[in-house]
């Protein structure tokens, strides 16, 4: 028989120490990541926009330099605008797709189903198609009850229901009903 070996549980103080070490390590890695991003940004800016040397330039050369910088700024603004337009288009498309997903997955109200009466012949016709030729008469198998039997069982004194209600009201009426039931049982 194989017995399962359980690992010893870590004490609360050890667990707390491990958590604090993990948090400290994560904090160090986050700081390193921030530093790397800053260095990358400085490197990119140094590559794309070298430092300007304006000393010793004449007025015409400074004006040409300004025109070049304005042209570069225009190009960068156009790129930024194009990227923003793409981002807006993508976010709108994502929003539309999310709405479609919610609509497809959504909670639809089930319509109230109505009870439909269908005869046995119609059911057989729908199941068997045009092959169905035999008509099924389900009423033929039911027990027949003669109407005369039910009329004989009813007492004749029900001719005027108002008189009957007045006669049976109160304790007197209840005694009559009790006596009548007792008499018919014997």
From TrEMBL:
Residues 145-186 are annotated as: Disordered. It holds the Pfam family Troponin. InterPro entries: Troponin (IPR001978), Troponin_I (IPR050875), Troponin_sf (IPR038077). GO terms for molecular function: actin binding. The keyword Aminoacyl-tRNA synthetase does not apply. The keyword Protease does not apply. Residues 145-165 have a biased composition (Basic and acidic residues). Keywords: Acetylation, Actin-binding, Muscle protein. One of its GO terms (cellular component) is troponin complex. It comes from the Eukaryota. GO terms for biological process: cardiac muscle contraction; skeletal muscle contraction. Belongs to the troponin I family. Troponin I is the inhibitory subunit of troponin, the thin filament regulatory complex which confers calcium-sensitivity to striated muscle actomyosin ATPase activity. This is Troponin I type 1a (skeletal, slow).
């Amino acid at each position: 028989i194989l017995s399962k070996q359980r690992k010893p549980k870590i004490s609360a103080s050890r667990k707390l120490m491990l958590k604090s070490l993990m948090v400290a390590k994560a904090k160090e890695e986050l700081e390193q990541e921030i530093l790397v991003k800053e260095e990358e940004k400085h490197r990119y800016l140094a590559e794309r926009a070298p430092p300007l040397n304006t000393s010793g330039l004449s007025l015409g050369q400074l004006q040409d330099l300004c025109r070049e910088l304005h042209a570069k700024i225009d190009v960068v603004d156009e790129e930024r605008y194009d990227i923003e337009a793409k981002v807006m288009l993508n976010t709108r498309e994502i929003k539309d797709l999310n709405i479609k997903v919610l609509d497809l997955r959504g909670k639809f109200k089930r319509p109230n189903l109505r009870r439909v009466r269908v005869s046995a012949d119609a059911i057989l016709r729908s199941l068997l198609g045009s092959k169905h030729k035999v008509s099924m008469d389900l009423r033929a198998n039911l027990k027949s009850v003669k109407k005369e039997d039910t009329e004989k069982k009813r007492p004749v004194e029900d001719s005027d229901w108002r008189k009957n209600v007045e006669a049976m009201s109160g304790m007197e009426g209840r005694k009559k009903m009790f006596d009548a039931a007792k008499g018919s049982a014997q």
